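discrete fold record:
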Amino acid sequence: MESGPAIFAGTAFTLFGGALLLWTTVRTLHREPVAYGVAPRTAVALTSFFGAGFLLLGVWCYARL
């Protein structure tokens, strides 16, 4: 009964974290701003941190099955 929500949450977190890391990488490689109005190093560091965090949270949800 509880595996359904865990699968949904794991999928949502994993997709969001992976997409955020991919988007950050592409923007950085094209030398485009990751976030407007924020220092480039700060924006890359924070988005990478949160992207990895969401990715790990999704993997943790899958491990709980």
Summary: The chain has a mean pLDDT of 93. The two ends are 11 Å apart (CA to CA). The longest helix spans residues 3-29. The helical segments are 3-29, 40-63.
